[in-house]
Amino acid sequence: MTYTERLENVSVLGAAGKMGSGILLLTAIEMADLSLKPENKDRLFVLNAVDISHKALGELMQFLKTQVRKIAEKKTVQLRKIYQEREDLIENEEIIDQYIFDVLNIVRPVTVLEATYESTLIFEAIIENPALKVKILTQIDRNNKKSPWFFTNTSSIPIHQLDESAELGGRIIGYHFYNPPAVQKLVELIQAKNTLPEIVEFANALAKNLRKKIVPSNDFAGFIGNGHFMRDALYGISEVQRLVNEMSFVEAVYTVNRISQDFLIRPMGIFQLIDYVGLDVCQYIMSVMNPHVQDEDLHSDLLDSFIKMGVKGGQYADGSQKDGFLKYEKGRPVGIYDADKKSYIPITEFQANIDEKLGPLPKSALSWKAIIGSSEKEEQLKVIFTELKTMKTVGSELAIRYGIRSKQIAEKLVSDNVAKTGEDVNTVLLTGFYHAYGPINAYFD
User: Fold this and answer.
1) Which of 99, 165, 223, 386 could form a disulfide bond with 217, CB atoms 3.0-4.6 angstroms apart?
2) CATH number (domain holding residue 242)
3) 26: domain range?
């Protein structure tokens, strides 16, 4: 089966979700572009958008329409060439409208799993629940006579576990997009020991056409991205628990969040990142990973207690941030949750006092936003962190400890054979998490 034939009938499971909608958008564009090639004019392309809610699917179609319009507006020159035989399409707006129609015409929003029984390629982006994934993959495979290939977007579950439990015979691969899939360039590619080589070949070809950067990860729970993030988060939490001997809980959370953002020059602090992903999601990912590690306990009592109180973070349907460890207004942290008082304490009540205790940033310091796009980034980072190591302030010492721990986590991913190389770990953190530098570096030595 050729690349084009494999993409003639595709299904996306969990299509109306945060990840599924992005995967669906990317796939719809790729399939539509294939359908518009002259040699494919007699082929029927079908993309099943599978989810459990009719309402969510209706919203998904509106999302697709809006996003496809944005994409079409950016490639009107290319579209003019595609539609050059259409004498009825003259104005750019006419061409854009036609392209939107052609893309959406491929998509079939459905709530029944039976729609997948004719697909040769299935993207799975449902909830991170091994038992549910196995149940659904098994049902599809037993009723689909075309021996479909399964691309799972799991961020933590070992691929061989899904393969063996669903008896897929190697017709599955980990294809972990980062959020949001339509924007993020990174895809972690995870082969199980029995994954068919032709699936790997197709996966790489698809990534190239989607303009994604592939980083291979070995088939170990959590892979590279969550392998680092979950341990990084647990370190941040442990630092808070250590610091509560010197300050209040909310002050400790503020301290560690600021250290991990401003002093380490990251796009957001570690507690903001936990909130962004969701406390309950982080808890669940750790629970999936934990049985597969021997020398550490990937679990947090603090996460458990906050979740029990209903403090979960995550995002609303429009992408705005829900309150978690931190309270947000217009996307910016303004408070920190006090478990004893069951309320958020405004950051302004203690910020000045803690900032004074931490001490200043290096005089050479730049913001993440200023660093990330700089052509002189490497030299600037070297100057900043060299100065940081000479300061001997509370803030500098906490930051250096954090940077060293981040490097240790990354190096262990390589020594444990989760990542093939240190460069792969750095690429995941640079590309998938938008860090300004990789965790394996000489800045904190």
Assistant:
1) 223
2) 1.10.1040.10
3) 3-217
